[in-house]
Amino acid sequence: QVQLVESGGGLVQPGGSLILSCAASGFTWDYAGIGWFRRAPGKDREGVSCITSSDNTTYYADSVQGRFTISRDNSKNTVYLQMNGLKPEDTAVYYCAVDRRLATIKDMCVMAYKLGRYWGQGTQVTVSS
């Protein structure tokens, strides 16, 4: 059974940092890309950052470029999202997701909804003073 389990969310002050983790298990096949998406209150889901499994090519949304860093630890089958310089507008539920196939890693991230994508349950990130 495929599982994506996110952790690391919480409450942080503006300018602070958090590291989100997504542990993937149950995959009997190689996936093409894994990424982070978020849904802020009153807004639609959006892609934050994604990374390919083949060569670690990354993509970042403009809103997080230079502040967030995505990385993978193959030995632990885990993907991380290092979030620095957090802003109140980063407040959202953050979801980890996996695509079996993709055209480009940018395509994975800009498509907030995709048939056949696997999702985690989400972790809340709140940025507030």
Structure, briefly:
With 129 residues, the protein is mainly β. Helix content is 5%, strand content 47%. A hairpin with a 5-residue loop joins strand 5 and strand 6.
Secondary structure layout:
Layout: E1 3-7, E2 10-12, E3 18-25, E4 33-39, E5 46-52, E6 58-60, E7 68-73, E8 78-83, E9 92-99, H1 105-110, E10 118-119, E11 123-127
Number of E strands: 11
The residue fraction in helices comes out at under 10%
- The global form is globular
* End-to-end gap: 40 Å
The chain-level structural class is: mainly beta
Instruction: Characterize the biggest β-sheet.
Output: 7 strands, mixed
Summarize the structure in words.
A hairpin with a 5-residue loop joins β5 (46-52) and β6 (58-60). The mean pLDDT is 95. This protein is mostly beta strands. Strands 2, 4, 5, 6, 9, 10 and 11 form a 7-stranded mixed beta sheet that branches. The protein has a 4-stranded antiparallel beta sheet with strand order 1-3-8-7, with no helix packed on it. It has one helix spanning 105-110; strands at 3-7, 10-12, 18-25, 33-39, 46-52, 58-60, 68-73, 78-83, 92-99, 118-119, 123-127. It is built from 1 helix and 11 strands; from the N terminus they run βββββββββαββ. The relative contact order is 0.31.
